[in-house]
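Now read the record:
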Amino acid sequence: MSNFDKATSFLGDYGSFQILIIVLLGLSGIPCGYMGVIVVFVSDTPEHHCKVWSNSTINGAHLEAPFHEISSWIGPDSCSRYKVRANWTVPVELGNATEECVDGWFYSTERYTATIVSEWDLVCDNAWKVPFSTSLFFVGALFGSFISGHLSDRFGRKPVFFFTLVFTPFITLIQANSVNWFMFCIFNCLKGVGTISNYITSLILGAEMLSDSARVSYTFLGHSLGYGLGYALLPLFAYFIRGWRMLLVASAIPGLLLFPTWWLIPESPRWLLQKGRVDEAELVIRNAAKRNRVPVPEVLFKAGECSEQMPEEKAQQTFTYMDLIRPRNMRNITILGVFIWMSVAMVFYGLALNTSNLNGNIYLNCFIYAAIDIVMYIATWLLVNRAPRPIVLFSSMMFCGIMLLIIMLVPDDMHLMFQVLGLLGRIGVSAAYSFMFLFFPELFPTVVRTMGLGVNSTGARLGTILSPYVIYLGVYSKILPYLIFGTFSIMAAVFSMLLPDTRNRQFPDLISQVQSIRSTAPSDMINLLQLNTTKPKELVVDLRRVRTPMTPVSIQGVITDIVEEYKYLGAFKDSKLDWAKNTDALYKKG
């Protein structure tokens, strides 16, 4: 338990204040749950065929026939049509030669009144524009992940959260009035910026206000469950709203309705302490105690006793993304996190975006996927504290990978088996996706937590940008997307075992409190480190006691990067150690 947790333990775990935070921030996850996958319906490609010949009676002769029958005699595929033998005004006689759809296309309205595909003819030679427009949402999410972390660490969690809460629906309303495909893509990218920024900031804001027990509940039953409910509402809205413009308008409404929660959700007290704004942090805690109806100690945060409360001269210190890669422990966790997030997000969104390519009812398939997500969020919440964190992540991603790779053994005509194995893979990746939002905030310290999550989320967006194109490979080989998704799932599972276990450990606040990965021996396990330098002899560093703050360390010689890594204090000359006799007086900075 950190000093902050001790100072605020009188609030309890599940008082009125904590429940209010869990519910309100959980509701903010609903719009995020459908914004990234609404393209399943907005950008779906209806059945289509070439428009019939305008100068023949064929325009009105057979239009009452079923759509697929019309398509079969108009042309061999949806991108070409048979040429007529002459310029007939009576029922035409078709030849074997074909031509492109020079008059455009006719789209079925059996499922949709309109999508962006039918409105702007994004088929055949223009079919590439569909996955491209989808990827642009995740390109925006990539930039949003990167900039939102820095902004919320600098200006606060609450301002960034509420700005993006309003920004996203505002952009969505403009997107609904797009006059062409290019305008749609621009605002789809901006929508990605706002959606992911809001999602990450809400996670950090809630996690930093709650105790360890409540934080686990919030991550799964608030944050992730809200996301799952939003995903489950999507097929319901899409079923009753068959036009893409009105569907976007409806998707913007929930975010706007949540803005009045500004007066109920406070700023993160941990962030306020880290910035030296102690009075504001105490006010947040006292208001929480008042809502929980518990007495408040006269002094909440004693000077120098709270690790979040930085010294006055460092209270205004600005941390940058370089702080994520300078210290070795931070660098290892950041690199592993980027790859794991990229892999999990690519598989998670790839399977979701593949809904329209599955056999059966698209609305039912989408709802089943959402229901699986919700069930797995609850199941993961029940199991998360029963096993080490890396084991949970490893098990879920390994299960997903195995299920998806088994699809290679299934004959092409067994469509039901494809769907069953795909759903089983979805179970594993859904558990991993929600679990990441609990695990990785526990790995990053308060001073760079949002930036760390932002960088990891940037990696995730790289995966989601690739996912539409991985799905598109299914045109050439039905099993190829599953092979790629399964391979990345297993790789992520293996790398997850290198991460340190954070179960029942304190929430880190300073970079010095970050744990090392499992492949790196702890400093107190190192007995002797030998370093070759420009000196003619081999120099030896005795690091047997470096874990104890302000403990003398006997050093006969050392190079600059080791000094930086362990933050020694000593005599230096031009960024190098003074090779004089006083080198034995070096200390490890506590």
Summary: The radius of gyration is 29 Å. The longest helix spans residues 181-209. The CA atoms of residues 21 and 266 lie 9 Å apart.
